[in-house]
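tool_call predict_complex ligand=manganese (II) ion
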Amino acid sequence: MKMTFRWYGSSMDPIPLKYIRQIPNISGVVTSLMDLPAGELWTKERLRALKEEVTSAGLELEVIESVNVHEDIKLGLATRDRYIENYIETIKNLQEIGVKVICYNFMPVFDWTRTCLADPLPDGSNTMSYDQRIIDKITDPQAFADEIQKNTGEFEMAGWEPERMAELKKLFAAYSGVTRNDLRQNLKYFFDAVIPVCEACDIKMAMHPDDPPWDIFGLPRIANSMETFDQILKLYDSPYNCITLCTGSLGSNPDNDLPALIRHFGSMDRIAFAHVRNLKILEPGRFYESSHYSEEGSFDMYEIMKALDEVGFDGYVRPDHGRMIWDENGRAGYGLYDRALGIAYLNGLLEAIRKGKR
Ligand SMILES: [Mn+2]
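tool_result ok
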């Protein structure tokens, strides 16, 4: 498995590539053209420049996170075909620069959601947290989105593009009456168009789970458990229709047995990308993102890495959201220090697991 690190691009990320290059066992970065709105074509010129920047820092660029899916595709509107065309051209352009995996999600309106971006921890660090009781009290998602946006400081949150957030009212109206089954059918329509292109280009589509893994604000969600991912993989049966196994997203619902999910989808060779992190579940629907270390969260990270090793996972892995430590000023969840500690820990687990088998 190849160890990677999410990086938002030199104009959007305060972490220099040369720092990332110095993390032990790193192979490359996972990045995107964050300034482009969902639905837009990623041009060859932009991608060549991005590739050149990353490779000249001694890093690979084989995973994109994310090429966002336009809401019209998720909604199944007549206008979707034009955005699907752009998606297809983007896949072809990504093949040209050697990309192997595209991480994306199919969550209506909101990408990942937290209710606090800097929750203080007893050790003096801070972290992101989620409290369903706060979400349940929100009658105006616009006000919530504005508040979150305000608290991100100088950094825009990935998946929370301002132009989309400004349209919340319209989007909520558009989704009223859209069922989970409708959403699944719209996903199938998308798959029918893009997966054959992925097969030709040797690029795997890796769907990220819903985060948190349940419906929020009454919007339908379809990617949050073994059963729902089985359904998704069956919509288009191809080795290029894969998943991003995100332990933090799936694991915030304790019904999701993470090592079992890894064994199930890993033995089918349908995990193309893994996000490996820990979190602490305080009670159902309430959690914070802890350090990666097993004892400080709710997951057994040894069992997670062991399951990945057992199924012979040979895709890409990255640590996920970290805490803000050592007074770092960065993008919430995406500081350098705690994620680098996360990688060092995952490296250690893997070395011990592999040598322990001899
Ligand atoms: Mn994730």
